[in-house]
């Protein structure tokens, strides 16, 4: 019976570790594969394999980190997004399935040989997914964090995606750049003091990438205000936002003169991305 960390010791079998675990079954399997450098099939075919002392200690240490609340993605150093593997760590947000909607909408609107800008790229998930799917596109990604940009560059290289990365506080580094067909962004949109910031995985993620330290809309306002100077006529601005912010973001876009303003729902039915088209 695996009811305490002390039960994870030399001699315990893979089958025993999977029959009863201190963790959720999926978390347990991911960490077991990571600790032993095995794939899921090997966990089945080698079910009677017994752990060595070193393997037991390594796995127990990973389990403890998860019990302490550390996200699985940070423990194993990787998360899949848009079918691609992404390195993640404490310098970047963990890419989430909800953001795949933003990538899909960007790809639908990006013309042949088009130019796309990802603002606040973090791990590079959006930019790399777009560039990987559309090798003909000219993709640029910005972030104010040098540490995040280092991660993003490694992710682009690992996924053979051609992306230009720039260190920039929003639009600062691209004032002379040619206009873009699409600007996409998943900016910090959690309001300061929101209880979610002290719960679950968010406790471990970079706070500056989660919250604007204001009302949750300040980064979105900055992006909306600056986009016309960097978009081609009829170009699209697409932004991810909080579960309850769609109406406010639509109002901001409409007030700024954008056309075809609308919101799109994620797989959970939540209005997750809002955008508009620059008037001609």
TrEMBL record:
It catalyses: L-glutaminyl-[peptide chain release factor] + S-adenosyl-L-methionine = N(5)-methyl-L-glutaminyl-[peptide chain release factor] + S-adenosyl-L-homocysteine + H(+). Substrate binds at residues 186-189. Residues 24-77 form the Release factor glutamine methyltransferase N-terminal domain. Keywords: Methyltransferase, S-adenosyl-L-methionine, Transferase. SUPFAM superfamilies: S-adenosyl-L-methionine-dependent methyltransferases (SSF53335). NCBIfam families: hemK_fam, RF_mod_PrmC. This is Release factor glutamine methyltransferase. The lineage of its organism: Bacteria, Pseudomonadati, Pseudomonadota, Betaproteobacteria, Burkholderiales. The gene is prmC.
């Amino acid at each position: 019976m695996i009811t305490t960390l002390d039960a994870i010791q030399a001699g315990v079998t893979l089958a025993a570790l999977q029959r009863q675990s201190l963790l959720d079954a999926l978390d347990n399997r991911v960490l077991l594969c990571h600790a032993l450098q095995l794939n899921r099939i090997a966990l089945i075919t080698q079910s009677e394999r017994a752990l060595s002392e070193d393997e037991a200690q390594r796995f127990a240490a990973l389990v403890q980190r998860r019990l302490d609340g550390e996200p699985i993605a940070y423990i194993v150093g990787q998360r899949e997004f848009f079918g691609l593997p992404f390195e993640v760590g404490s310098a970047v947000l963990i890419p989430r399935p909800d953001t795949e909607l933003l990538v899909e909408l960007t790809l639908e609107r990006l013309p042949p040989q088009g130019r796309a800008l990802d603002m606040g790229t973090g791990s590079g998930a959006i930019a790399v997914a777009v560039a990987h799917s559309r090798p003909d596109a000219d993709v640029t990604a910005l972030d104010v964090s040098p540490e995040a940009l280092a991660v993003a560059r490694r992710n682009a290289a690992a996924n053979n995606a051609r992306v230009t990365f720039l260190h920039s506080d929003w639009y600062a580094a691209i004032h002379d750049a040619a206009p873009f067909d699409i600007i996409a962004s998943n900016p910090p949109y959690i309001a300061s003091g929101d209880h979610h910031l002290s719960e679950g995985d968010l406790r471990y993620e970079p706070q500056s990438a989660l919250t604007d330290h204001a009302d949750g809309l300040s980064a979105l306002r900055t992006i909306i205000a600056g986009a016309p100077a960097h978009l081609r006529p009829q170009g699209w601005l697409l932004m991810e936002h909080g579960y309850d912010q769609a109406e406010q973001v639509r109002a901001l876009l409409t007030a700024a003169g954008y056309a075809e303003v609308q919101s799109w729902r994620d797989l959970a039915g939540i209005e997750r991305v809002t955008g508009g088209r620059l008037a001609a």
